[in-house]
Design brief:
Distance between the termini: 62 Å
Number of helices: 8
Radius of gyration: 19 Å
Largest sheet: 6 strands, antiparallel
CATH architecture of the largest domain: Alpha-Beta Complex
CATH topology of the largest domain: Aminoglycoside 3'-phosphotransferase, Chain: A, domain 2
Structural class: alpha+beta
Length: 290
């Protein structure tokens, strides 16, 4: 048995089955909609399918938590980052974003924007006086309120089935299917640019190589992804959401360093420095516009 706990859930693995106990505050109606969609043929070959419990249910109550069951596939090895299937990941996200969700009642937004604000709140609670915290808060102030889950997103942007918390850890490989997306906790109807925001943020911070970013973007575009234009600069679509993910990642980094009473490591410092650059750039742009 393998047991791992996270603030938003607990995962238990027994042999080739994984049982996830979802967050205590998970909305049962929204989770059931997400699970039913994940179990449908519409996402076959895109998203890992949930398994049914012995009683036939897709979702069961275990203590105070809702639980789901999944096949235990092979995750990407952290010891071999060069093996990351960036192009295939882009294709999977494009296919996810083009999935017809008519009839499932999935009309709520993804959890992406809410994660940004929660990360900053966590930082303020555990490391509000850390030297990097002020830079994160200043970068936070450059974001529109919709990027923090407050108010409607801008008109004119596409809406699609959106993962809401995509990163390489959300890929798993099964022998009969190859690579699949996993984790339904933040699925919603939202701007699909959120699913490219984290790798875009890491690329902007110098933490993701240009080749990997290009492979992801090329795979996404070739598969018909709607989040970015096919033949123009993608950053008009990604600017705000990538800044939001820089803030989120930096906030979590500062929170971790504060709890552990240590200095920022190289990666964490790069994220905080990117927050400083974001703030300086937007201040300069504001002055130039006056």
């Amino acid at each position: 048995m393998v047991l791992s706990g996270r603030q938003d859930g607990v995962v238990v693995r027994v042999a080739d089955v994984v049982v996830k106990a979802h967050a205590v505050d998970a909305d049962p109606d929204e989770l059931l909609i997400r699970i039913r969609l994940a179990s449908s043929d519409r996402l076959d070959g895109i998203l890992l399918r949930p398994l049914r419990f012995p009683d036939g249910n897709l979702v069961n109550q275990i203590g105070e938590r809702l639980a789901t069951a999944w096949s235990a596939g092979e995750p990407l090895s952290p010891d071999d980052p060069d093996a990351a299937p960036w192009e295939r990941a882009g294709e999977l996200l494009a296919h996810l974003h083009s999935t017809d969700i008519t009839g499932f009642g999935l009309l709520f937004r993804s959890g992406a924007a809410g994660r940004v604000a929660r990360a900053v709140e966590r930082m303020n609670r555990s490391a509000g006086r850390h030297p990097g915290a002020a830079s994160v808060r200043t970068a936070l102030e450059t974001l529109p309120r919709w990027a923090l889950g407050e108010g409607a997103p801008p008109a004119g942007r596409p809406r699609a089935l959106t993962h809401g918390d995509w990163h390489l850890g959300q890929l798993v490989r099964l022998p009969e299917h190859g690579w699949l997306l996993l984790d339904v906790d933040d699925l919603g109807y939202d701007d699909p640019a959120w699913d490219l925001a984290r790798p875009a943020a890491w690329y902007a911070s110098g933490l993701l190589e240009a080749e990997a970013w290009s492979q992801l973007l090329d795979g996404y575009r070739r598969a018909g992804g709607v989040a970015v234009p096919t033949d123009r600069d993608p950053w008009a679509a990604l600017d705000v959401v990538s800044r939001a993910l820089v803030v989120q990642s930096a906030a979590l980094a500062v929170a971790a360093a504060g709890r552990q009473r240590r200095e920022l490591d190289e990666v964490e410092e790069a994220l905080v420095e990117t927050c400083r650059r974001i703030s300086a750039h937007l201040r300069a742009a504001h002055v130039d516009s006056l």
